[in-house]
Write a structure and sequence with these properties.
Number of strands: 13
Helix content: 25-40%
Strand order of the largest sheet: 3-2-1-4-5-6-7
CATH topology of the largest domain: Rossmann fold
Distance between the termini: 23 Å
Radius of gyration: 22 Å
Order of helices and strands: EHEEHEEHEHEEHHEHEHEHEHEHHHH
CATH class of the largest domain: Alpha Beta
Amino acid sequence: MKVLILEYELPPIGGGTGQALLRLVEEWKRFPETEIEVWTARPPKGFSRDLPEGVIVREFRCLKKRIHFWRGIEQFILLWRCWRETLGDSPPPDVVLVWGGWPLGLLLLGRIGRFPSVVALRGSDVPGFNARTSGGIWRMLAGKVWERASAVTANSPALAALAMRTAPDLQIEIIPNGVNFHPPLPSEEETPERENWPTDRPIRILSVNRLIRRKRVEMLIQAVAQLPREWRDRVEVRIIGEGPEEHRLRVAVRELALQNQVEFLGEVPSSEMSNHYQGSDFFVLASSAEGLSNALLEAMAFGLPCFHATPTGFEEIDDVTVQFRSAQSLSKKLLHHLEHSRRAFLRGQACREVAQKQTWRRAAERYDALLRQVISRFNSLPLLDQVGPWLKPETRFQPLTQ
């Protein structure tokens, strides 16, 4: 099976969308009879990427300037260069996987739309998730792309529900993200009582995300500022990630006199993330919109009690994590767990048990099965219905159900 993956970002560009694809591809390399080619944006000057071995990665120059922010002209150039490539005589793929529907999903409306395809919705490609891509024209384009695809997936029920506001009749298969590392669960004998927090170090709250407005990291900073002084002085917030909001967040820290409580660590290599999870006591994700965060699942896998602002739609996850709507409610819920350390520890254990069930291997197997089903269904169509780029409405196959 030859799979062409269209993805606008791969590390170091972007955040969770590219990281998720990288982990999925790492699993796919172990699958027999699967050839993978990825089309993506070339990083800005001064940045390099570790490309997966055994995978063809085509990088398209699009004048990218900032790692964590896309300009409209950059997206247009990337789309245009990829579109030109589709006009060539390269060997055709068996199936196309659009990992994140914007902007490269628009290619399905052209020549490449002749092939069976799957659109994997990741977050910002869904109207209503990001204010920049939520107007009427975006909804129209998204609906056309999803209609053209053979199947559509989302990484959480919440994201699928958001997509269905744009396309109410859309059938979406839910394939969640996975976790790369699963620390072993401690035995009952090894489980500490933890009636009190350790006194030899601060109580650490971890935040891992791009520093953009949608992530609302300032909500965590404000919540810590509202803690009673006896707890505020014992807390240390570690913020991992970079982005255009960093300066504004640093100003907020100074204005709230939290320089001793908040530390900006910048970008941290994936190989070092386990140390930060293991050395933390809480994890907070204040994003206003999220599919299924890689960082949330990773924090759960390390047994951290996790707080997040938007439900995932997975009942099992939302039942063991803590949701909040404002800095005030986050502060109150953090205080409750600070005052009851045993309860915080048990919540973390529950998070770890749920995350143990989510693996990238499982996600890769589900995508592999879906892609093969899409190919099989396409090949079963009459030959005249396979030529295009458009499928007749009466012969267009329906997306696979869950």
